[in-house]
Specification:
alpha+beta, Glutathione S-transferase Yfyf (Class Pi), Chain A, domain 2, 2 domains, 8 helices, 4 strands, globular
């Protein structure tokens, strides 16, 4: 069994996406918690691992990999028994890559527009334009889900990335079930995974609760 160390924070969607991938591959991770609010990611020892001071960071017996998508691809490529989670077929792989870019460039980016202002800048409101921006991302995902999963009929690492973000933001910006039946069906399919709750379920809910609690705390300050 390889020695895999993940510098992580379970509240973080990208970290949970890596945890989902590891669980799907049957890999054990030694997790080292990095508290962003406490500034752990800015400490000299962490900056030696990742000068961009972001998490997650994977240490595979001295090989350092940063950025969640890169880590997931690395794990599947090196340790996967097959290529189902990240297909080698160029067309299927391109669809997975497109979904990964959609997650980082649209879903996660728009979540950050709301969460960071509350967590790091003491804001107390949810600006209407930013909420609408998130709602538009929901509609884009709904339109994208033409099959059971985001990149086609089979589950891939793109689903892990997208669900880690969606499960967090929907607790702050409402995701209407009547308007987004495909998204809810997709969520239900992923929840059937035996490792889903441990790797993502609680973390997604907890992040939303943490943001809302911080919002109330800011209002009292």
């Amino acid at each position: 069994m390889p020695k895999l160390v993940l510098y992580t924070l379970h509240l973080s969607p990208p970290c949970r996406a890596v945890e989902l991938t590891a669980k799907a591959l049957g890999l054990e991770l030694e997790q080292k918690n990095i508290n962003l609010l406490a500034g752990d990611h800015l400490q000299p020892e962490f900056l030696k691992l990742n000068p961009q001071h972001t998490i997650p960071v994977l240490d595979d017996d001295g090989t350092i990999i940063t950025e969640s998508h890169a880590i997931m691809i690395y794990l599947v490529t090196k340790y996967g028994k097959d290529d189902s989670l990240y297909p080698k077929d160029p067309v299927k792989q391109a669809r997975v890559n497109a979904a990964l870019h959609f997650e980082s460039g649209v879903l996660f980016a728009r979540m950050r527009f709301i969460f960071e202002r509350i967590l790091f800048y003491g804001k107390t409101d949810l600006p209407e334009d930013r909420v609408e921006y998130v709602q538009k991302s929901y509609r884009l995902l709904e339109d994208t889900l033409l099959d059971d999963f985001v990149a086609g009929p089979a589950m891939t690492i793109a689903d892990f990335s997208c669900i880690s973000t969606i499960s967090s933001i929907m607790g702050v910006v409402a995701l209407d079930k009547a308007e987004h039946p495909r998204i809810y069906g997709w969520i239900d399919r992923l929840k059937q995974l035996p490792y889903y709750e441990e790797a993502n379920g609680g973390g997604g809910t907890d992040l939303a609760k943490f943001v809302l609690a911080k919002k109330e705390e800011n209002a009292k300050a």
